[in-house]
Design a protein that fits this description.
The protein is 37% helix and 24% strand. The chain is α+β, with helices and mostly antiparallel strands. It has one domain (4-138): Gcn5-related N-acetyltransferase (GNAT) (Aminopeptidase, 3-Layer(aba) Sandwich). A hairpin with a 2-residue loop joins strand 2 and strand 3.
């Protein structure tokens, strides 16, 4: 690994981000990199980029984008006014999986949450990702809640 660079994503990074979202077993079933959806991804990016409580991150190794994740900073009243950092859409380029890049990405994300005065970092992960579950638990995350979704 060269020197990793963590930075806010730009519109020019959108193709690389979508490619990583598509490039895994679950993503292949729910994402679509076809030109027909380019406007939807671009609109979503624009909304994320305009929101000060969002940080869409890309990780570069040299000139190559090798990872991405989205941080959402959630102010709240519960837990004595705790601000939470939510980590979502974590993806690593397929040729870089297993290289400790995920550990570096989470260390960076947790530092960002601390810098934003979050006292809790949380994430969701699909039940069908047992390797991810082991990874998150190894990092100290605990499976404390059950999540529910409703497609509308």
């Amino acid at each position: 690994m060269n020197e990793l660079r963590f930075r806010r994503a730009t519109a020019a990074d959108l193709g690389a981000i979508v490619a990583m979202l598509v490039d895994d077993a679950l993503g292949a079933a729910r994402e679509n990199a076809s030109p027909d959806l380019a406007d939807r991804y671009r609109d979503a990016f624009t909304e994320i980029d305009a929101d000060p409580n969002q940080f869409l991150c890309v990780v570069e190794d040299g000139q190559q984008i090798v990872g991405t994740l989205q941080l959402t900073f959630i102010p709240g009243l519960s837990r004595n006014g705790t601000k939470r950092g939510q980590i979502e859409a974590v993806r690593i380029a397929s040729d870089r999986r297993g290289s400790k890049l995920g550990e570096a990405m989470f260390a960076w994300a947790i530092r960002e949450c601390e810098a934003r005065k979050c006292s809790l970092v949380q994430l969701t992960t699909d039940k069908a990702r047992p390797d991810a579950h082991r990874f998150y638990e190894r990092l100290g995350f605990e499976p404390t809640h059950i999540g529910y979704k409703l497609n509308i």
